[in-house]
Amino acid sequence: MEATLQRTPLYERHVALGARMVPFAGYEMPVQYEGVIPEHKAVRGDAGVFDVSHMGELHVDGPTARDFLQSMLSNDVRKLGDGDAQYTLLTNEAGGIVDDLIVYRFAHGQFYLVVNASNRAAVYDWLKEREPRGCEVRDASDDYGLLAVQGPRALERLGLLDAPAFTHTMGEIDGIEVMVARTGYTGELGVEVCCAEDDTVALWDAVLARGVTPCGLGARDTLRIEVCYPLHGNDISPETDAISAGLGWACALDTEFTGVEVLRRVKEQGPSRKLVPFVMEEPAVPRQGMPIEGGGEVTSGTHSPMLDQGIGMGYVPAGSSAPGTDLTVDVRGKPRRARVVTKPIYRKEA
Known about the structure:
The protein is α+β, with helices and mostly antiparallel strands. The chain has 8 helices and 19 strands.
């Protein structure tokens, strides 16, 4: 199996740092270095860096690119100016989520999509099969390295000025040309920094030299669950719709895109089930696939390093989705009490 796994440009750096490597989305990736809890707390308290070079990057260029993406993606691409970015969904005919992604707009009608690593081929094939005249979809994933630097001191550590969330600009870090995007997956201040593939190692070394803690997939998961960011393949999939998943805010239902009629109907009628965040009221760690009494199921779960209790997300019947509702999770055959809460599960104290 390992022979078929791909490696990012930083594989040797991860091994040298003593990272525990695991298969993820077809890549050999670091799950942790020092440990999930200290890495998690580094991001919440200072700054951590994640190698996300396994993510897919697609270019969509040409005079018809904007109109094409407007017809494919759930959010309103027309609202993007040069230097803007937007969280959006690629949906199928049933309103299901092929992928959740970020679209960046450059000058001259050029767009850049960052997609989930496991969906890179699916998104590229979906768009390429529907590509109109005057537009070219190109998979440029192997041309780039991508680092996520996240935490309250991330910008300070990198020597960058603050910028509004979901904007991007060209810049440099210690002489390395980069695209700096004010985006991330942790709920913290931070940036995602893109560079040429052959600059990735130098960029990683420069970031670590500035005192940023290397972090693995383990902390990335606990961080995103604390702030209720969905993971494709766990909380959302081609079989789940955006309204039931609580992602209606990323759908411009007054525009025309694939599956929009279904989503309008679900919103009008109300979803039969909803994705809810919850905390455990008894000592227990919820995990994906565990049943929730009454016909629900856990989609993501972990032990929260910040709250020191079990937390998670899962689909429950709509009647059991209101904050404050008591739930019962089957944790390895034992019923354990839980409670629906409002998003995010973890909030920083003022």
